[in-house]
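A reminder before we start the practical. When you read a complex entry, don't treat the lines as separate problems. The point of joint prediction is that each chain is placed relative to the others, so the output describes one connected object in space. Small molecules and nucleic acid strands, if listed, are placed in the same frame. In the example below there are two entries. Take a minute to note the order of the lines before looking further.
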Amino acid sequence: MLVNQFLFLAALLFCIGVYGVIARKNAVLVLMSIELILNAVNLNFVAFALRNGNADGHTFALYIIAIAAAEVGVGLGLVLLIFRNRRTISLDDLSEMKG
Amino acid sequence: MIATSEVMSELSSGWFLEHAWLIPIVPAIGFAIIILFGKKLPMKGSEIGLLSMLSSLVLSGGAAAQWISRVNSGAEGQFIAPVVRTWNWWQIGGMKFTIGQSIDGLAVIVLVVVAFISTLVQLYSTEYLKGDRRYTHFFAALTLFSAGMLAMVVAEDTILFLLGWEIMGLCSFMLIGHWWEDGANSRAALKAFFTVRTGDMGLLIGISMLYFASNEWTTKHLGVSGFSIRGISAWALSGEANSRVILIAAVALFIAAIGKSGQFPLHTWLPDAMAGPTPVSSLLHSSTMVVAGVFLVSRLYPVFFTGFHIMGSGGNFITIIGGITIVIAAALAFVQNDIKKVLAYSTVSQLGYMMLGLGAGAWMPAVFHIFTHAFFKACLFLGAGSISHSASHHSFDMKKDMGGLRKVMPITFATWIISTLALCGVFPFSGFFSKDEIIDNVGHNGYQLFMVIGLIGAFMTAAYMTRATYLTFFGEARGASAGIHHDEHNDAHASAHDAHDSHDAHDAHATDHADHGPHESGWRITLPLVLLAILALGSGFLNAVPFGEKWERITKWVEPRHSEFAPELHHAPFTWSKAGLSLAIVFVGIALSWGISTMLYTRKDKRLVGLTERNSALRVGYNFLMNKYYLDALYEKVIVKAIAGPIAAAAYWFNQNVLDGILHAVARTSRVVAGWMYRNIDQRVVDGTVNNSGKATKGFGGVLAPTQSGKVSQYGALLFSAAAVAALVLVIINS
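Here is the predicted structure of the whole assembly.
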């Protein structure tokens, strides 16, 4: 029962994150939304670890937190460079890669 | 629990003891308020800092009073159990992590000292940092720092201990580098942080080792985890612990103490940390940060006691490190011109005494020295700050900008003299009762060699403090304290900066200086000085061993009685002949140093002035000291360069010759093979296929090209809808 509530919360977070990634134009906000998605996953891991009574989920969650930190570092670095070169971080303006 | 005597009485407790966990919580909340709303408050957040420290002080005082009545409610020789409360922090699988408080005599005495000094330092800072550009942040960091130290002190378990320890490490970085615009300051902050971190690895390793080694035993016998300090203590004393494991854990933990408490060879960060504002130096280097290492050893004493066979040999790792530290740091104090650096090396040396005492089984004198040292050293640091604030134009250079200040700064002078005498260990000032006890007990417990080192240290302490006192308060007024402002105002500021790194620079102060000469500081600076001087004079009587057992109050209240949690320790019987010897040594030190100082600095005696330039042996020694035993050079030039130089070169060579060699060989072979392949297979078989499939792809690609819009959000939408479809398929298949 308890686990269900965690899962609902995680699903909600995930959906908010997906909405942010798809609908937002600001690169920083998209990065933040990706964080939300990652943390939704974390929550699932921890919730299931609690249910199954072992430490695997916690370990995964800790790894994800560490890697997410690195990811944000790289992501923000990219955003910063893009801003320096283009004076904008709107994702709509960055569509040179079209086919 | 095993009864150590037949008579056991019910121990009293009380609200303050049960709620001692509030003591670190209050400043932690204070920190949050300052950092969030500080700038909008009328006093820029300093009132919150001061208020939270005052509440901590009141709570600590209440806890101390109730602890004393708890001790009194116990029977003679009964172990006074600490007041323990724990909470579940988190739980995974079968592992349960708890954090909590464990209040005993050691915790109480350190709590009172830390809260008291923190309060005074905050009061002092309101004046000293008036108009600073990061005033609010300063108070935030100061408050969090105290919270970290207090959390470490109340900790029931090694987890909370580590947390408090690391909070202090972080805050010391912020506080030392408070004026980070100056490159030297931020370098000093980084140096302090990294040097201490080197030791911190030891703490992590030690805690983990102790957990895995003791968890089974503690769970079985006491029902607590291997993180509980009580559990670890009982395990270490039970005789069932693997002696090699416990030795390695003790070494690891002691390395952490070396880093934090500025022991040889990791003491190099401590003098550089003087780059921080003076109140920071006073707080960090009298009662909190640097005492953390000593506290670690005294807190987990059974581990060290068993691991190093304390009391069972004539010397061990702790006493050796402590002994070396006492002498080398005191020697360095002689060649410093910066008053704060003299005090810094003096702190290093005094910490050496505490370590020596702990290593030689003189637990109680060492802890008592933490107590007395906090008062007189804080007073000395704040006195130095008072001089630089009001008399010497923010300079700390004793030779250039001080001298003859006893007349213009009577309060600062009087408090300085009292604290200096306490530091030197002159009867009846507080340092006598603690330092002499350490030396006495070290000899009594069979560490004769280290007793001699302690006496040499006492001589050197007396001599360098006399030199510093003479240069600061006696003789002719020089430089800024004579009212001379070197060069134009701003130039003086800039050039003084280059001359010595620990120069305090204030924003608001740079402009309002031309109109006043040296004068006494305001009440917010002198009040802490006076309070600390009174304690530097009187606190020794709380444990005045010479006057008989009735006077040994701190011993009664603080020292854990022999039980399964505490090893059995002996006390040296006090004799006036031994005390007389060390007092005589101190007086000789003072007199000798006074004589040389007068000849050298005032009368400019030709035989002494420039002696280090004329005599080559002395010059070598002087340069050796000036370069701090070349330890900094060793760390920066040799160790860092060794890693950066040869290892990088080796990697490059390996890359060039081995990896590239393999690559070239592979490439040549590939070329031969490829040539054949090209002629026979590629041209005839592959190209035909490719050309055809290319045509097909081109047609198909034309259809799909519009989806490659270059818009990230569209890609994202496609990705997530594909994932959703896949998830749906999975659900359908699995149901």
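Discuss with your neighbour: Residues 1-6, 486-515 of chain B have pLDDT under 50 and may be disordered. What might explain this?
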